[in-house]
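the two lines:
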Amino acid sequence: MTKNSYAIEPIGVIRSELTDLADAPLQGDEGGYEAWLELTPQVAQGLAGIKAGDHLIVLTWLHRAQRDVLQVHPRGRLEAPLRGVFSTRSQDRPNPIGLHQVSVLEVAGQRLRVTPLEAIDGTPIVDIKPVLSAKPSER
Amino acid sequence: MTKNSYAIEPIGVIRSELTDLADAPLQGDEGGYEAWLELTPQVAQGLAGIKAGDHLIVLTWLHRAQRDVLQVHPRGRLEAPLRGVFSTRSQDRPNPIGLHQVSVLEVAGQRLRVTPLEAIDGTPIVDIKPVLSAKPSER
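prediction for all of em together
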């Protein structure tokens, strides 16, 4: 049976000079910022093995998103026809989880400096995963 | 302020012949199965624009995972040194969100037939996103 809901508990928070949603690029590779991932002490052990130069996928909870939106004009272009949110990267969607591919610049205890990141300061982090190499034998 | 928790509400469920975790490959491209994504009627509008041939990222809630695990032996190899879960794709982690890149084979109302998928039958789906093309101008 599927439960009706599961509790996501943030493992940390994004610290960035980017504080205003209006200034945020739509995707990290469209002008993302350097940012710090500040993990909580409770999960710090989970960072073991991460080093500068690694490529990671950061999962965030886009806490400013609207969760009751199912269709949007892609990239906010009002002249474009409405599309289902699951065929877009709109932050407005039932479960507003953001995916951000970043490179690690520096590891400082339970903080990671990464780039590029388009999420604003204060965005909760919910998971971090490595980008998989194309070859299963190298995973 | 970051809240202590957010409620994820599944938008659907995976229907697959794969019913036993012990038979599941570690990643979809290591022998994943065809599967159906069954969305709930409440979010069906969100699928508008998705068609056969599309490449999607399916986000799941790995409901059988252990959430109190912070270090693992990568890929279950006991001879390998322990690593932090955030540098692995272990399903055991504080917020067990699975990422699965799939191709759409068929769209049938609020159901999508996709391949390859390594998640077991009954796994809750929490989000669906398009794979971004490399060129921002084509998004």
